[in-house]
Amino acid sequence: MIIPTLGCPSSCSYCWSSEEGSPIMTIETVKEVVEWLKNFRDDPVTFTFHGGEPLLAGADFYRETLSLLTEGLRHQKIAFALQTNLWKLTPELAQVLADYNIPLGSSLDGPQELNDLQRSEGYYEKTMAGYEIAKDHGLSVQFICTFTSYSVDFKEDIVNFFLENGLTFKLHPALPSLRDENPEKWALDPEKYGELLVYLLDKYLENMNEIEIRNINDLCRCVFTGRGTVCTYVDCMEDTFAVGPDGSIYPCYRFVGMPEWIMGNVRDHPSQDDLAQSEAGKLMHQFKEYVDRECKGCKHIRYCRGGCPYNAIAPTSGEIKGVDPHCVAYKRIFDEITDRFNKEMFGSLGMEMAPLQSEPAEDAKPGIMALIQKIISS
Ligand code: SF4
Ligand code: SF4
């Protein structure tokens, strides 16, 4: 993950990751990233530009950076992605990103009024204006919808909004904002998060041909394949790193700007082992061992892996007191998917053994198996 700046022109109510006056990464730092990674590992690498708001770095930054990374690391298989609110997307910038075929993730919390109440006045229009520019340049945009303690009560309106506008989305539960005096104000309660996931699973099944909810795909994939496919549900330590504006290396973008989580700096070209030996690296590893012990009896451990280490250990200043507090939600949705999957499997076996049993009603809602089929075929 490359974090060109922690600055952001918006001021979303529940933001926990932007910082006013944050510098912009220099091209010298990008060159050091390339030198560092040349001998770091041979695996394929995906560079995700994140922020703050990464487009604040401007078109020249991306023109030069994308060329440096592509040329300098041509021996590796590299891919790009970028997470932005789209406000700063100009036709020039869109063309640069389109030249590298970069998929964009953006953020919308639902209908305009609700979105602007949570994010900031005028947010919706600015993001939609950027979305039009992105579409004009053939860029693919998928949205993240943050559900807060407030917006969860409007879940139906929110889903209808994405459905009516034909937008693919993924949900994020609002996290406690560690930089705020009242960190829990917007945070989504884990129980409610679990209920929300089950609700979204049902809405997805009802509207499978019209909508795509990426988290639900990821969760079904976990249960079906027995392994996690997104960072929350794998051991992300050692495979994910984030480089902040000044070249500091962190375990992930969520830690950027927290000095106690710096693992090294790109200008020193640290090895994987050097990073693992840093205090932050050791803590991340201890979390992994903690999960092995603590979640041992959980039937979902293989594909949950204790959830997100940031959620678990950042709020306690690195003290490992528990797994990801969203455990309740993960268990709820993994249990639900597993139960439905087993019931459908068992049911279909039963049908084979009892062919005279009546067929399911024509208007019956598709089940988990239909969704898994869709995920596999896509
Ligand atoms: S710390 Fe959390 S958000 Fe960051 S890579 Fe790991 S699981 Fe993902
Ligand atoms: S659901 Fe909870 S107990 Fe099970 S592996 Fe995930 S975090 Fe651990």
Description:
With 378 residues, this protein is an alpha/beta fold. 43% of the residues lie in helices and 9% in strands. It is built from 14 helices and 8 strands. It has helices spanning 27-38, 58-72, 91-99, 112-118, 123-136, 155-164, 190-206, 214-225, 272-277, 279-294, 301-304, 309-313, 327-353, 368-377; strands at 45-49, 78-83, 104-107, 141-147, 169-173, 242-243, 248-250, 264-265. Helix 3 links the parallel strand 2 (78-83) and strand 3. The model is unreliable at 354-360 (pLDDT under 50). The site of one iron/sulfur cluster has 12 residues, from helix 11 and helix 13.
Outline of the structure:
The chain has 14 helices and 8 strands. The chain has helices at 27-38, 58-72, 91-99, 112-118, 123-136, 155-164, 190-206, 214-225, 272-277, 279-294, 301-304, 309-313, 327-353, 368-377, and strands spanning 45-49, 78-83, 104-107, 141-147, 169-173, 242-243, 248-250, 264-265. Strand 4, helix 6 and strand 5 form a beta-alpha-beta unit.
- Helix content range: 40-55%
Structural class: alpha/beta
Number of helices: 14
Low-pLDDT residue spans: 354-360
Provide the residue-averaged pLDDT.
Answer: 91
Q: What Rg do the Cα atoms give?
A: 22 Å
Which ligands does the model contain, each kind named once? iron/sulfur cluster
The count of strands amounts to: 8
Shape estimate? globular
Strand order of the largest sheet: 1-2-3-4-5
Termini separation: 26 Å
Percent strand equals 5-15%
Task: Tell me the series of helices and strands, N- to C-terminal.
Answer: HEHEHEHHEHEHHEEEHHHHHH
Major sheet size, sense and barrel closure: 5 strands, parallel
